[in-house]
Amino acid sequence: MNSKKTYDYIVVGSGSAGSVIASRISEDASLRVLLLEAGPLDNHLYVKMPAALGFPLKDDRFNWLYHSQPESFLAGRRIYQPRGRVLGGSSSINGMIWVRGNPWDFDNWEAQGASNWSYKHVLPYFKRAETFDQGPNPYRGGRGPMRVSTSSATHPLFKAFLDAGAEAGIPLTADLNGYQQEGVHVTQRSISGGLRWSSSRGYLHSQPKRPNLTVLTGVLVTGVETSNKRVVRVKAKDRSETKVFEVDREVILCAGALNTPKLMMISGIGHAHDLRDAGIAVTHDLPGVGRGLKDHVGVGLRYAVAKDVSLANKLTIPGRAVLGLEWMLFKKGIGSRNFWDVGAFLRTRRGLPAPNIQFEFSPLLGNYEPGSLSVEHGFSHFVSVQRPKSSGRVWVDSADPAVAPKFLVNYLQDRDDLEQLFEGIKLVRRVVQQQAWDEFRGGELKPGPQVASDDDLRKWLPTAASTNFHLACSCRIGQDDMAVVDPEGRVHGMDNLRIADASVMPDIVTANTNATVIMLAEKLSDAILGKRLPPEFQPYYDADDYVVN
Ligand SMILES: Cc1cc2nc3c(=O)[nH]c(=O)nc-3n(C[C@H](O)[C@H](O)[C@H](O)COP(=O)(O)OP(=O)(O)OC[C@H]3O[C@@H](n4cnc5c(N)ncnc54)[C@H](O)[C@@H]3O)c2cc1C
After folding, report:
1. Is residue 485 a contact partner of residue 504, using CB atoms and an 8 Å limit?
2. Contact (Cβ atoms closer than 8 angstroms) between residue 521 and residue 505
3. What residues contact residue 204 under an 8 Å CB cut-off, 6+ apart?
4. CB-based contact 442:303 (threshold 8 Å)
5. What pTM did the predictor assign?
């Protein structure tokens, strides 16, 4: 059966970005807005309960469960990439760490041709997005849809992490999302009232119902139909039923860094040569589509713990029953939290404009690969490179919308990415030798004492490194030949097609990516409506020649 409906704006994908865009545009009651999401509603316990975060990572009801093509510089391994397929997208399955990009990243975006994306331009949108539990100030928002809470960091292993940082001479920052990102920090999280605060919770469920906003879940968009460089309709499948939605004004693609370029390509928009190779008729030759894909490459260092304090104690089968009950009755206890209360952004070298390494510390050992979800005693530092030079691409080899996008990130292709990761690991090893760790430090489990020399460590990295799940930059903002959208998210050479998700980042940021994606969707929703918040000038920390070594 074929049904036809017309809207002013059609938003494809309800993830971190799409929920923001649909919500903000529909604040104008005169506009008819349609939000289309392939996945189901986000009302399952696994999505709502923060501590259940491991479950959606292996569950195809909420997750596209993608894998890269064999990564040549990671010993030919295919790297697992969970992506949310549910209302709220990846913000409904992510780790809920709330951290903005370093202010320098945005000044760098502007320097790379993304005009009006410098720190002073994005700061008002970061603030507009959030309600910070410590209240508003010149850097922080107090009335936004995303509720941001400060972690408690009371567990003894978190305390050891913070103390060891001080002993190693690493500064402690009071607010990593304020003046100073750099240093050791207590994390902030998109959790409130014991619930995962996804973008769908903040921007859809927590807003008044709007008759002009239609949200359809379980609807897979299969492409956009164009005529004279103008999108006229969106094609979709609702189970076996084909649907067609006519658009009067614009279509905004928010399907994420893999599925947005895929949708462009299967609609005939992309590199003409690649499309012809895939047997797809070219409607608009745009060579940058899918190119420049980036991600944070990283590796976990695992340690045994000498005292019986690891959080894994609370996550045994009986422990889970207790925490589940406590969460269901009161929305409190272990169920209401994630497991990263502390972390650090650091430089391993002099002369860098911003930290190049992130540590994410966890007081247990977790394994979240599909098919294996286990929690063990110990503690771990996940070390990742924040501005990797390696990049890859997304492509399709057929026009079939049911086929997963193909992608390669080329992790560690650039030798300097490997060197930065190597330097980050040396730094973890040094920090874990500080006195604060003496009572807790067991042996190093991974890489382990057998990987001792610098040479061994460099050889080990390609066999062990993986990702922090921050795919971005596959349809980037810019004015050059390989750019896909202009600074207002409009696809170059098309009349009424925009992209507003992680794909458009001109470069990957020094941070987990959710807050930045939400900020950019806030800013692009204003661009769609022809509005702009005035810039806000606030200084930010510049460590000059500071380095931890
Ligand atoms: C496991 C994991 C952990 C992470 N942890 C953190 C963290 O702790 N902190 C942090 O800051 N960042 C984290 N991230 C990254 C962050 O969540 C993402 O960068 C961000 O959510 C991306 O937003 P997006 O809007 O670009 O895409 P998504 O949020 O992925 O949204 C895309 C949406 O489009 C839908 N869609 C795709 N194709 C179609 C189609 N054809 N038809 C209809 N709908 C479609 C998808 O189902 C999805 O809902 C994590 C990511 C993952 C996957």
Report:
1. yes
2. no
3. 14, 19, 22, 23, 87, 215
4. yes
5. 0.97
Residue 343 pLDDT greater than 50, yes or no: yes
Residue 549 pLDDT exceeds 60: no
Q: How far is the CA of 14 from the centre of ligand 1 (A)?
A: 9
Q: Is 377 a catalytic residue?
A: no
Joined tokens for residue 411: 């992790």
| Angle of the 514-528 helix axis to the 16-25 helix axis, nearest 10 | 30
* Alpha-carbon gap, residue 167 to 171, rounded angstroms: 10
User: In this structure, which residue's CA is closest to atom 49 in ligand 1?
Assistant: 89
**Of 271, 284, 296, 470, which one is the catalytic site residue?**
470
Beta carbon of 21 within 6 Å of any ligand 1 atom:
no
Residue that the structure tokens 């492509």 belong to: 395
Q: Is residue 4 very low, low, confident or very high in pLDDT (cuts 50, 70, 90)?
A: low
Closest CA to ligand 1's atom 48: 89
CA distance 425 to 239: 47
8-state DSSP, 138: T
Does 83 sit in the ligand 1 pocket, CB within 6 Å?
A: yes
Give the separation between CA 470 and CA 515, rounded to whole angstroms: 12
Tell me the pLDDT band of 548, cut-offs 50, 70 and 90. low
